[in-house]
Design a protein that fits this description.
Strand content: under 5%
Order of helices and strands: HHH
Largest sheet: none
Helix content: over 70%
Number of helices: 3
Number of strands: 0
Structural class: mainly alpha
Length: 165
Amino acid sequence: MRPVDWSVVGFSGDPVAGDPVVVRDGGRRYVGVAERLGRCAQVLRGLEAGASQSESVAGLVEVKDGLVDEAMRAEGRYRAAGAALEAYAVVLDRVQVESLGALQVAVGAGLEVEAAEREGAYWQQRATEVAGSMGAGVEVPAGAGGVSDPGMEELGRCQRLVERA
């Protein structure tokens, strides 16, 4: 089960939704249909009116070329769709792993940013208290306890990685 909360990287939901196993299975099913269509076309090609002279067989022999052509076109479409789904499943699986890794790094970076903000606020408060006890004329620079740029840069890097995936 993939995480639901992707807000730390700027998404309201999973940016790479889907189930590679289901997609791969769908691709295999399409390829299976293509194989059955190919076998049907072979059987139809083998039909001849020689041994059996029933009207139904004779009627089928008359239209078999059209049926074979249609079966072969359908086989090609199903085979191509199945192959595309199977290839997509591989890519989907890889990209989901990459995006999950980026999310985990971003969550870690977010936690580090929060910790740095808390620590910065603590030291800002302490500096203000010390400056106040020293009397007039001592000022604490604004942002003295702010978050470092490297933490924000790491968070931004993770967001870009998820967006590319």
